[in-house]
Amino acid sequence: SQTIHQWPATLVQPVGSPLSLECTVEGTSNPNLYWYRQAAGRGLQLLFYSVGIGQISSEVPQNLSASRPQDRQFILSSKKLLLSDSGFYLCAWTEEGRERGSPLHFGNGTRLTVT
Amino acid sequence: KNQVEQSPQSLIILEGKNCTLQCNYTVSPFSNLRWYKQDTGRGPVSLTIMTFSENTKSNGRYTATLDADTKQSSLHITASQLSDSASYICVVSASGVTGGGNKLTFGTGTQLKVEL
């Protein structure tokens, strides 16, 4: 069965510090991978998605970047965090080629607080 | 602009009671609508999916309805349990998407609390 792992679960970082959040998927090949941010009182916002190794599409211009160094690994990064980067970050995957037909499978998220 | 609006924003009910959550959308062209359940501090989990031709779908005590003409959906929870306490998120998918982007529009969710 497929599983998705996301870590860390919580993170407190000072403004200006770097960020690296990691997500890995097991039990499937060539998944579509996504990074979402969930702010309080707002719907999930798609940040990045990837359809393959090294392929990254950005939905929203921002202080963050994403990379996919391996088929089932997705990393969210920042060189210098801003206060506005605080939020709940969710990694998700769908089956290749079935973006609309299959559900998003989410990790358990990372609660990031920038102080 | 594609939008999904959910009501109520929050709801408190007693264990064993039924409740209905609402979702109105303006996503076009419409592909499908999903309801997700999100426990506090966890990722959302899909409950149901409905396409244009489906007007009702059940998953245990959860029953979703869809009226594509009025662009409304509801999620009915029967005989609520304490474990139903969570945020319920309505997500609408637009068709005609290529390249991996899923063009999903998320509602802000209804926060349900079930009490003894």
Question: Your description of this structure?
Answer:
The complex is a heterodimer of chains A (115) and B (116). With 115 residues, chain A is mainly beta. Chain A contains no helices and eleven strands. The model of chain A has no long low-confidence stretch (mean pLDDT 91). Chain B is 0% helix and 57% strand. In chain B, strand 7 (62-67) and strand 8 form a beta hairpin. Chain B starts with a strand and ends with a strand.
In short:
The complex is a heterodimer of chains A (115) and B (116). With 115 residues, chain A is an all-beta fold. Chain A contains no helices and eleven strands.
Write the layout of secondary structure elements.
The complex is a heterodimer of chains A (115) and B (116).
Chain A: E1 3-7, E2 10-13, E3 19-26, E4 32-38, E5 45-52, E6 55-58, E7 65-70, E8 73-78, E9 87-94, E10 105-106, E11 110-114
Chain B: E1 4-7, E2 10-14, E3 19-25, E4 30-38, E5 45-51, E6 56-59, E7 62-67, E8 72-77, E9 86-94, E10 104-106, E11 110-115
Parallel strand pairs in B: 2-11
Antiparallel strand pairs in B: 1-3, 3-8, 4-5, 4-9, 6-7, 7-8, 9-10, 9-11
Largest interface: A-B, 29 and 25 residues
Beta content of chain A? over 45%
Roughly how much helix do the residues of chain B carry, as a percent range? under 10%
**Subunit organisation of the chains:** heterodimer
In terms of structural class, how would the helical and strand content of chain B be classed? mainly beta
Question: Could you spell the SSE succession of chain A in H and E letters?
Answer: EEEEEEEEEEE
DSSP helix count of chain A? Answer: 0
Overall 3D geometry of chain B?
Answer: globular
